[in-house]
Write a structure and sequence with these properties.
CATH topology of the largest domain: Nucleotidyltransferase, domain 5
Shape: globular
Strand content: 15-25%
Structural class: alpha/beta
Number of strands: 10
CATH architecture of the largest domain: 2-Layer Sandwich
Oligomer: single chain
CATH superfamily of the largest domain: ATPase, nucleotide binding domain
CATH class of the largest domain: Alpha Beta
Radius of gyration: 20 Å
Helix content: 40-55%
Number of domains: 2
Largest sheet: 5 strands, mixed
């Protein structure tokens, strides 16, 4: 079964053909990073316009690279939530028109479920149930994956997502957007114990996360040093910050794994590409006898292969949409499992 996946939730226009939820036949991504870098972050209106300009050729290219025609496709899967509403609507509108004109089933896919499914593209042996840490620019979740289409959110950020925090700390340190890769590179040259940074705790939740206090602490430290005429080591601050984020994620995730008795952990999302986070989780999982699954780096960021993959499992579960499908800016994974 071949699924055409379409992703446009933020600033990547992507299309992919995936066969039987495992074999990637094509994965085309049109990135807008260079343009948004001029503004230090994603500008929603610009993102929507670029999606509208790119989506036709991206889908066409995905079919060409897969050596397929639309007639060879069994269904069209599209991200419908969560994300920037204008960006989502471009992908949804195109997918609806394509599916209706070709007489193909339309499958609505939750973006975070897609990130989780990216692991199936890398690890054919991974099967639910397991625990998944989803960490990206807009999301930080600890999720119990009960089966391929049912989830329970164990913990989530109360404020900033981990990826958002990386970008804002990178900006104050003078790095370009997106900041994650620059922080990662700088951290490898710095001392992770140079700066003492806070590790926020949530009084009423053992598994929820918070990164706004950490972000503020870094910003204040940098600004105070500038005002005093002191020099901040960007590499040391990057290393200290990255270690604090990694330690916080590891602590919460390992606590959740212990509670659930889980011996399988997957990670997903853009921040799952961070070398410091990967190394910290590898060490923690090895110590506890937990098998760790990590997606290939090319599937960590937003892409359509993960949407096509999840679309395959949603299709088998009987999920369908019609022409009334709309975009939803905010939607918990718990809601789609009800």
């Amino acid at each position: 079964m071949k699924i055409l996946g379409i992703e446009s939730s933020c600033d990547e226009t992507a299309a992919s053909i995936v066969e039987d939820g495992k074999r990637v036949l094509s994965n085309v991504v049109a990135s807008q990073i260079d343009e948004h870098r001029l503004y230090g972050g994603v500008v929603p209106e610009i993102a929507s316009r670029r999606h509208a300009e790119n989506i036709s050729w991206v889908v066409r290219e995905s079919l060409l690279k897969a050596d397929c025609t639309l007639a060879d496709v069994d269904a069209v899967a599209v991200t419908y939530a969560p994300g920037l509403i204008g960006a989502l609507l471009v992908g949804i509108s195109f997918a609806k028109g394509l599916a209706m004109s070709a007489g193909k089933p339309l499958i609505p896919v939750h973006h975070i479920a897609g990130h989780i499914a990216a692991n199936y593209l890398t690890h054919a042996d991974l099967e639910p149930p397991y625990l998944c840490l989803v960490i990206s620019g807009g999301h930080s979740h600890i999720i119990e994956v009960r089966d391929y289409t049912h989830y329970h959110v164990i913990g989530r950020t109360r404020d900033d997502a981990a990826g958002e925090c990386f970008d804002k700390v990178a900006r104050v340190l003078g790095y370009e957007y997106p900041g994650g890769k620059f922080i990662d590179a700088a951290a490898k040259k710095g001392d992770p114990n140079a700066y003492r940074l806070p590790r926020p705790r949530i009084p009423d939740s053992e598994f929820d996360l918070s990164f706004s206090g950490l972000k503020t602490a870094v910003i204040n430290t940098v600004h105070n040093s500038v005002q005093k005429g002191e020099t901040i080591s960007r590499e040391d601050m990057a290393a200290s910050f990255q270690k604090t984020v990694a330690d916080t994620l590891v602590e919460r995730t390992m606590s959740a794994a212990k509670l659930l008795g889980s011996k399988k952990l997957a990670i997903a999302g853009g921040v799952s590409a961070n070398s410091g986070v990967r190394a910290a989780l590898e060490t923690a999982c090895e110590k506890r006898g937990i098998k760790l699954y990590m997606p290939e780096l090319k599937y960590c960021g937003d892409n359509a292969a993960m949407i096509a993959c999840q679309g395959y499992y949603d299709f088998l579960a009987g999920k369908r949409a019609d022409e009334s499908l709309n975009g939803i800016a905010t939607l918990s994974l718990d809601r789609i499992s009800e």
